[in-house]
């Protein structure tokens, strides 16, 4: 008879991997799990509880906020505030950072960056959506945390994860020692270990990109899409095109089956659409921990400089060999887009003048 291991039990068990651990990170992950269950409850009956549709407000990205965006945002902020382990929150739905000042959090040292509801365009049509979170330890030691504490590179993450609210609800996370997935068992109200030590296949046969933006894609991306569509049975091409439109659901599928997800620059989003701090960095950490690769077509996402809370970047992420192939195409057909290349050109010009 198989033994069920809950998220709480697993977290405590893994605490021994961190000799300095005092349980704060464990409690923080517990708090995220609690909010996820409440959001899951509403998502599952969204049509019945008047939580579909627009809230009538917009966020700093100019996007109309969905009622479920606001509900999820509120649930995660209050769970993190009550839990006492978080001193600062960065959320997609809040223009400014949220400094937590409560009786229970005066010694809190963790920063949580969160996309409370990912895939908002799919909420009203009953397609999988998700939540993405990224956790840092504050760098500043004295007094209140600062904005700088929230602008750390992705390499500084101590944990990251996502929840996918789909046919089943799963929580997948890493603390830098591999990736594990837990499925919510509604009958006991617990996330239970169902996908231990997740690994993304090195090669995959699925490419995931919004081809509706094709004409505005960089040449390197156009060439890569053509490569995916060419007939070559020896390499199982043409690959299948799959695009759900919820980054979390597209990446979770690729994590299990292998594949590549791309959101390159487009005319409407010249720097890419997805946000570095609470979408790209956490997903890059998880995918790398599962053996995959995550870049902006040139540079490792986790090493990118973080200049602002809601900064956007382009992302090429998934199976190692597929991402490398796409990078080859970018370097060959769109070298001008390499930040490094641009930086080098700029410094040469500066030196010459
Ligand atoms: O509709 P597009 O341009 O393809 O964008 C879809 C992408 O936008 C997102 O919905 C953005 O995330 P939010 O829903 O959290 O704003 C991603 O989940 C998804 O991959
Ligand atoms: Mg999102
Ligand atoms: Mg969102």
Automatic annotation (TrEMBL):
Q: What class of enzyme is it?
A: hydrolase
Q: Where is the Fructose-1-6-bisphosphatase class I N-terminal domain?
A: 5-196
Query: Coiled-coil annotation: which residues?
Result: none
- Enzyme Commission number(s): 3.1.3.11
Which keywords has UniProt assigned to this entry? Carbohydrate metabolism, Cytoplasm, Hydrolase, Magnesium, Metal-binding
On subunit structure and binding partners, the annotation says:
Homotetramer.
Source species of the chain: Paradesertivirga mongoliensis
State the taxonomy lineage.
Bacteria, Pseudomonadati, Bacteroidota, Sphingobacteriia, Sphingobacteriales
User: Which reactions is this enzyme annotated as catalysing?
Assistant: beta-D-fructose 1,6-bisphosphate + H2O = beta-D-fructose 6-phosphate + phosphate
Its name, as the record gives it, is Fructose-1,6-bisphosphatase class 1
């Amino acid at each position: 008879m198989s033994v069920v291991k809950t998220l709480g039990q697993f977290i405590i068990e893994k605490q021994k991997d961190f000799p300095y651990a005092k349980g704060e990170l464990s409690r923080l992950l517990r708090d995220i799990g609690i909010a996820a269950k409440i959001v899951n409850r509403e998502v599952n009956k969204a049509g019945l509880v008047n939580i579909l549709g627009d809230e009538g407000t917009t966020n700093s990205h100019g996007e109309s906020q969905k009622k479920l965006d606001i509900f999820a945002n509120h649930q995660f902020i209050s769970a993190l505030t009550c839990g006492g382990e978080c001193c600062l929150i960065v959320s997609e739905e809040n223009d400014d950072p949220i400094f937590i000042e409560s009786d229970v959090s005066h010694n809190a040292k963790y920063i949580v960056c969160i996309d409370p509801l990912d895939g908002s365009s799919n909420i009203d049509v009953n397609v999988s959506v998700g939540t993405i979170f990224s956790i840092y330890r504050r760098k500043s030691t004295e007094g209140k945390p600062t904005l700088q504490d929230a602008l750390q590179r992705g390499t500084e993450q101590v944990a990251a994860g996502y929840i996918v609210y789909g046919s089943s609800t799963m929580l997948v996370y890493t603390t830098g020692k591999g990736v594990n997935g837990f499925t919510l068992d509604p009958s006991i109200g617990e996330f239970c270990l169902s996908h231990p030590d997740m690994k993304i296949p090195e090669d995959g046969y699925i490419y995931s990109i919004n081809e509706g933006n094709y004409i505005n894609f960089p040449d390197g991306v156009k060439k890569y899409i053509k490569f995916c569509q060419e007939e070559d049975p020896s390499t199982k091409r043409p690959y299948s095109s799959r695009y759900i439109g919820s980054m979390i659901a597209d990446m979770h599928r690729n994590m299990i089956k292998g594949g590549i997800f791309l959101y390159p620059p487009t005319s409407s989003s010249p720097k890419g659409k997805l946000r570095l701090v609470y979408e790209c960095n956490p997903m890059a950490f998880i995918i790398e921990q599962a053996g995959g690769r995550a870049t902006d077509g040139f540079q490792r996402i986790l090493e990118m400089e973080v200049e602002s809370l809601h900064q956007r970047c382009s992302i090429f992420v998934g199976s190692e060999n597929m991402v490398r192939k796409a990078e080859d195409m970018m370097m060959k057909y769109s070298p001008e887009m390499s930040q490094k290349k641009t930086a080098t050109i700029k410094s040469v010009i500066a030196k010459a003048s």
